[in-house]
Amino acid sequence: MERNVARLRARLTALGVGLRPHLKTCKSVDVARRVMASPQGPATVSTLKEAAHFAAAGVRDMIYAVGIAPAKLDQVVALRAEGVDLAVLLDTVAQAEAVAAASRAVGQRIPALIEIDCDGHRSGVKPGDTERLLAIGHALAQGAELRGVLTHAGGSYAARGEQALRQCAEDERRGVVEAATALRAAGLPCPVVSLGSTPTAHSATDLTGVTEVRAGVFVFFDLVMAGIGVCQVEDIALSVLATVIGHQPDKGWLLIDAGWMAMSQDRGTAKQAVNQGYGVVCDLAGRPYPDLVVADANQEHGIVTLRPGSAGVMPDLAIGDRVRVLPNHACATGAQHRSYHVVRGTQVAIEAEWPRFGGW
Amino acid sequence: MERNVARLRARLTALGVGLRPHLKTCKSVDVARRVMASPQGPATVSTLKEAAHFAAAGVRDMIYAVGIAPAKLDQVVALRAEGVDLAVLLDTVAQAEAVAAASRAVGQRIPALIEIDCDGHRSGVKPGDTERLLAIGHALAQGAELRGVLTHAGGSYAARGEQALRQCAEDERRGVVEAATALRAAGLPCPVVSLGSTPTAHSATDLTGVTEVRAGVFVFFDLVMAGIGVCQVEDIALSVLATVIGHQPDKGWLLIDAGWMAMSQDRGTAKQAVNQGYGVVCDLAGRPYPDLVVADANQEHGIVTLRPGSAGVMPDLAIGDRVRVLPNHACATGAQHRSYHVVRGTQVAIEAEWPRFGGW
Question: In this predicted structure, what is the pLDDT of residue A346?
């Protein structure tokens, strides 16, 4: 984890932009403090529960990077009253009007960023849709603060190869900078130009016009990121410790006590070149068994088999033996657990337990 | 929920067997008390965390229905020392020897059931594998208590149609009774003959030789169960309340603030006749919008679209409007939340908040 954090920091320093880490991956104050530039932030969150939890731990600069529902503005205002510079995100005039109205009601300009849709994968205003962009900007101007523009190249998760990743990163940059330029050309402010995803943060070669990068899963990495090529399997800093609880030798199955409740049901590698099932099986030191995969999972059972086409043999793992399983998706797997048991490198000894939280 | 519980109770009473509900679905003391025959149980659990949590709430009769890892026996012994009749499950001689050794060490016969594999879907001894069955029974006899046999027709989730479901139920019954008969013929005790899954519990027509039925998801039901045909969509007693946070009209998308973190990534209906995506969208009273489905999901975003081939039109849902989403799998979706907000029928008012727990 420390190496992963240092790697992205060094990269962004070289590109001349700051990091606003997305804390939805870790949902842990202990991890957050190791990934943020300072204990006060900056940071990105995906729920108001995260905003409140990290605010209570002293984080003072956050963007709630999911489109705001008007009914949530009361809680945003309450957090801001505690001294937290919490900004919201939106992509419709209706939301902008709600934020402006709430701002007027409390006599305080609530900061909002306009979400830009750089790759059509989810939400946001198309960079070239100047009409909608300016309508939102002008609606915000009626009491709220237009803080800037924000985009997320979620489509980069489907990119394959260095060239495609660099193209995603450049499309992400061009889209959000184009939107910022349009706002400024219309006389509207746009101090913040925010973009990011772990694949593009690790692929961008030029971030001209960008003020900050957001990324989340880079802190732990996972099999999806390894499949995309932005990390190696040995960089993955999160695993689930499991115990062998059965064998079905006629089927070549080994059963472990980590099913989808422990691993999550994320099957993000199913569409990649190497389908990693529900996870990669390692020894206690984190060294993968190259021929094994968690091929299937029930709620509390994982079914470990040889990989399809493998010429290997099942290692001699007896009832009670322990293994580590690397996850497809660190955000999803982490969310199934109440804390992190911290180990250093290939050590087995637990150095610390870091609580994590969930909910909304 | 109350109707679902009453329905299965009435069914099993008519068949002359008791219900040992599986509390892994609810992980809630409030729900457990409404589904168990008495506040003391009986009950089934899938983790020792559940066993400890329900023990603290007064449950005194539990089966931990996942193959035991020897390292967990200390905790089993500790719970039993508190007066909880907690039985373990196993399907290997190695586990039986570990349970017998632990029993001798504490001077107390730890009760164990032998898991029977009635349909080849996961773990357990094949009913006809008398050699392995008796070897486990004899190993247990060296200090432990052979409490009986237990099976789970997990394969019933893939059955389609009433006749196939009845066949699964009969195969489940025949398999576990055959194993009990073999143990008794060898002079070994087998007081408990336990089987169950929600599909077979609702399909069995004869449970001769069976002493108890286990089922979990029947308490809430879900879209997978509706797809199998053991409930109607209107029986589903669990939904996720979400808010509209965006539109992408050119794509026919409506965005809600419930993504896979709120719904889970269970896609259990993907292999059924009707693929329900990440869930069925309803109004606040729980009435489904027949043409809508949560077609895709990110961590905190759900993408709602018209169903493929639908001739309907997108209902007029504005920013801030709220919907309920019915889940594919109640166990998985429930696990993403910290409590249940209880409503009565089609009412919107929250009558109570019931905490739920997770972890191991």
Answer: 87
Nearest residue of B to residue A264 by CA position? B265
Our CA angle for B245, A331, A195, nearest 5°, is 60
| CA–CA dist B21, B8 (Å, integer) | 10
**For residue B93, pLDDT beyond 90:** yes
Of A70, A154, A360, nearest to B319 by CB-CB distance is A70
Query: In this predicted structure, what is the pLDDT of residue B346?
Result: 87
Question: Measured between alpha carbons, how far is A71 from B110 in angstroms, rounded to an integer?
Answer: 54
> Which among B260, B154, B132 has a CA at the least distance from the CA of B199?
B154
If you average pLDDT over residues A34-49, what whole number do you get? 98
Assess whether pLDDT exceeds 90 at residue B195.
yes
Q: Hey, what amino acid is at A170?
A: E
Contact A230, A202 (CB under 8 A): yes
Which residues touch A6 (CB under 8 Å, ≥6 apart)? none
- Mean pLDDT for chain A overall: 97
Handedness of CA A240, A244, A248, A250 (dihedral sign): positive
Helical packing angle, A73-81 and A93-106, nearest 10°? 40
Report how far apart, in Å, the C-alpha atoms of B131 and of each of A58, A250, B180, B183, B186 are.
Answer: 63, 15, 13, 10, 11
Query: With bands split at pLDDT 50, 70 and 90, how would you rate the model's confidence at B68?
Result: very high
Q: Give A338-359 pLDDT, tens digit per residue.
A: 999 999 988 889 999 999 999 9
Residues of chain A in contact with residue B260, where contact means CB-CB under 8 angstroms, are 266, 332
CA distance B229 to chain A (A): 21
| Distance in Å, alpha carbon of A39 to nearest chain B alpha carbon | 25
Residue of B69, B255, B260 lying closest to A257 (CB–CB): B69
> Distance (Å, rounded) from C-alpha B282 to C-alpha B289?
5
For residue A297, the chain B residue with the least C-alpha distance is B122
C-alpha angle with apex B194: B18 to A249, nearest 5 degrees?
165
Over residues A298-310, the mean pLDDT reads 97
Q: Could you tell me the end-to-end alpha-carbon distance of chain A, in angstroms, rounded to an integer?
A: 26
Neighbours of A167 (CB within 10 A): 15
Alpha helices in A84-222 (DSSP H): 93-106, 130-140, 162-185, 198-201
* A6: closest CA of chain B, how far (Å): 25
Q: Tell me: the pLDDT tens digits for A264-287? A: 999 999 999 999 999 999 999 999
